[in-house]
Amino acid sequence: MKLLIIESLLPPPPTITKVPFAGPIQVLSFSEFCPQRLLKLNIKTNKMKKLSIIAFVLLIIIGQSVRAQEDKGFRFTIKTNPLAAVGGPLYVLFIPVTGEYKILFEAKTTRNQSIEIGTSYLGPSILLNLDQLSDKDSISGVKTSGYRAQLTYKFFLTKESAPEGFYVGPHVSYATAKIRDKKNPDNYFGASKLNMDVLFGYQMITSGGFTLNIYTGLGYKLRDYDFGDNSQFEFDYGNKAAPNVAFGFTFGYAF
Fold first, then answer.
1. Distance (Å, rounded) from C-alpha 51 to C-alpha 20?
2. Which candidate, 91, 114, 87, places its Cα nearest to that of 101?
3. Helices in the chain by DSSP H: which ranges?
4. Which of 5, 154, 162, 178 is the most interior residue, by most CB within 10 Å?
């Protein structure tokens, strides 16, 4: 009788409710929430930001250096053309009466512009002996001497940095020379020429600095002649003013 009374006084057994499974439950320890852990995570984040900034700056520096390498960094060139000693710039018809021994210097002024100056000594042509064109009885020997000065300003048209690539620009030059009898100073022939052209050309520069410049152009030339009192030189001197077609090449070294 007592056993029945005790069982009736006990609470009913709890009911078990099934909960849908939602995946594994991650148990976080206290150390993951402590301030030291958060501080370490913040420090690592700041380091990553700094490394990203440094990498970005390095990329900019590398890009600038690559661009500088593409420009090759040349600012000056020195050029000549030994073949000009064969004849030029003074001619009688198509016969060269002088040979030119020249040197040119070019300097970069802006990224796409440069200026070129040149000077030349005008001496006898290595191709032509003027004694053969003169009267042997009246001229004992011929001496040729003179000079030439020239100036060109170039505007480069291609993506290459000056002084490399295609260019266009004004060109002016002045040449004067005198051919005289060695034993009779009053027996001479003098000539001068002024050229005013617009040149178009291309200048190539290798990675080692060697240059090749090829050009052509169109313009106008003015020629003047002077004769001594006892001049025995007999040439057909042609027109004093005429159109001018320029063509030539030079090679040298850039630095």
1. 46
2. 87
3. 2-9, 35-71
4. 154
Whole-number Å distance between alpha carbons of 148 and 173: 7
Report all structural domains of the chain as residue ranges with CATH numbers, in order of start: 70-254 (2.40.160)
* Backbone Cα Rg of the chain: 44
Does the pTM surpass 0.70? The reply is: no
Q: How would you classify residue 165: left for phi > 0, otherwise alpha for psi between -120 and 50, otherwise beta?
A: left
CA within 13 Å, CB half, 245: 0
pLDDT along the chain (255 residues), means of 10: 50 54 46 47 55 60 48 89 87 77 96 96 80 54 89 93 94 93 82 95 94 96 84 66 92 96
154's tokens? 């170039």
What distance lies between CA 37 and its chain's CA centroid? Answer: 59
What end-to-end distance do the CA atoms of the chain give, in Å? 121
Is 127 in contact with 86 (CB distance < 8 Å)? yes
Sequence letter at residue 79: K
Half-sphere exposure of 177 (CA within 13 A, CB side): 29
Classify residue 123 as exposed, middle or buried by CB count within 10 Å of its CB (0-12, 13-18, 19+): middle
- Give CA–CA dist 115/109, Å, rounded: 7
CB of 182 closer than 8 Å to CB of 47: no
Query: What pLDDT, on the 0 to 100 scale, is given for residue 175?
Result: 96
